[in-house]
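Sample intake sheet
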Amino acid sequence: GLGDVYKRQEAQGYAQDICSYARCDLGYRYTNKSPIGGIPAPDLLIYSSAQCFTLFKWFEELARFYQVPIFVLDVPGQGRGWRAEPERSAVLYVKEQLYQMIEWLEDKLGEKFKLEKFKETVRLSYESARLWYLILLTAQNIPSPISLFEQYFAMAPIVDQRGRKVVVDFYQELLEELKQRIAKGIASVPGEKYRFWWDGLPLWQSLRDFYDILKERKICLVANNYTRAWCQLSFEPRDDLDAMLEDYAYRLVRNFDPMIRERSLDIAEAIKQFKLNGFILHSDHSCRFLSLGLIDTLKKVQELSGVPGLLLDTDHGDPRLYQSEQIRNRIDAY
């Protein structure tokens, strides 16, 4: 089971406090146990600091484990947040690295970069992201035709097949289905009474139990900053490669700039946009990055929106840190 994977990973000397994503993956590498039959061993690795600044140590360990080369894409944080324009020098710094990554890939793979194929991939990625954003917006409807739990499963194509036509086709069909659900008044949570924001990573190891806890109380998790991330970096294809790489560099620097201050504004805005009457912040045991400043965030959102919030202590992967009864009691008290 998942607990065995974590125990094996810890037996290799890794601390319990490091990211559950990394621990689950490293545990799988050592045990060869996987619910999906495993994934292919990498030929090379690419790491970007835009996503998470602790990810590098995980990928560094994988590079050692498989004895494969690793490319580091360093995206600087300026503390400005996504509402402000990033410094031009930071954007150019990232763009230059993207050129270096193309050369690195050409060398390692023995293939030349194909601009036309790249443009088509960017076009399909852009269209997928546009459709995914429209899908997320259907949750503004009362009752919501889709909850965060369905979003977690439906985001799979844009995560691992982004830039392929199958993703566009899937989201076109899903968007039509959601429109039909709205027209027929079909709710994701029957008898929806409460509409909440969930902040941070999913509770992957306990999705069903957490869903049942909320469903019993007619709570629908409507909006979130995690599922939305998959449509924030898209850009339209252009004939000029330099312009496309600059578009991408700009979005990387801007969208993943540390923004603890703006997090409160983001949640308060979502409370209005999605007509929410509650929000839950996830104090994630093994994700320090997303757990920074949550007490201040809780107070600030309450000040801005007039809506009270709840802070839950759990983890995004380790089942030993998910306390079902405690969560039930905390939500009932809330």
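Comment: The beta strands are 45-48, 70-73, 194-199, 219-224, 278-284, 309-314. The chain has a mean pLDDT of 92.
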